[in-house]
């Protein structure tokens, strides 16, 4: 699995900021200990809690979390990870972080667990589980993601991260949703939608440079040239 090449949103922001797994971490509210801590001395539960935005006040929080991510991938604490994944989420993006870590580990254990959670429901637990198998080209999962594209109510950065999967596998049935995404106000979403559409329709050599005109172009083109696979 690539996790959209492993460092997609929000990991792509962290990749520039931290590298050491044994990073020295000044004490913070997460622990009652004082002094200096090594990331590799923290429990798996504490490492996951580091992704709570209120858990750290240090200037290099991105580097600390990047190190915590790598330590969790190294340890593979399946029980703790999946408990955190399905539990009520203390902040909006913790589940995203945990899903990315599970995706980076990708073993028969994670395959089985995520498959058990992958349904056509529109909650985020189902979304991340379905996406897990879509990342390797599972057509059933790609179909669910395309059908529920808007019903997941994803943030723009999450859409930017999802859309390239359709382009990577040239999944034609998602084209109508991608054409609709061309109407979004977020330019990152529009750019990713156009890239995916060009992958699905390689015969298209040029499109209007104006975003609104490009959106209208793709609406017409997708309608006139439906892709069933």
Description:
The protein is an all-alpha fold and 229 residues long. It has a domain at 1-104. The protein contains twelve helices and two strands, in the order αββααααααααααα. It has helices at residues 11-14, 44-49, 61-75, 78-86, 94-105, 108-117, 124-134, 139-147, 156-168, 175-181, 187-200, 211-224, and strands at 24-26, 36-38. Strands 1-2 form a two-stranded antiparallel ribbon. α6 crosses α7 (124-134) and α10 packs antiparallel against α12. The longest helix is centred in the N-terminal third of the chain and has 15 residues, at 61-75. The chain is elongated and about 55 Å long.
Short summary:
The protein is an all-alpha fold and 229 residues long. The protein is built from 12 helices and 2 strands; from the N terminus they run αββααααααααααα. α9 packs parallel to α11.
